[in-house]
Design goal:
The chain is mostly helical. It is built from 4 helices and no strands. The chain has one domain. It is about 75% helix and about 0% strand. It is elongated and about 55 Å long.
Amino acid sequence: MNKTIVFMGAVLGFLSILFGAFGAHALENLINVEAIGTFETGVRYQMYQAFFLMILGTWNGLAEKQTKIVFRLILVGTILFSFSIYLLAMNSLTTIDFKKIGFLTPIGGTLLLAGWFLFGYSILTKKTVK
């Protein structure tokens, strides 16, 4: 088991529950329905990645190097994707124009896709010993 990966999965899971509650209760009267939906998308994708990291950290089906690469892609991708979505959804609450960081969302999404692709490719091409 890789404690760092599992721990980061737990942190992302904890934060997604915290942010989900924040979005549902604190933001419901502050931002419009569309922005709430956007915020919830960030929470949902963050939780998916939290579960994925928990699995990745407890499964020994990949080589250590591949596991580390997938972990980094997923962690950085989640931060860029979900956290930029949170800021964009709350853009109307601040004088800072978070639309300027909107380019980070697709970069994060691309990193997530790369992490999932590498994970699947590594499983598919792994040589099994009989």
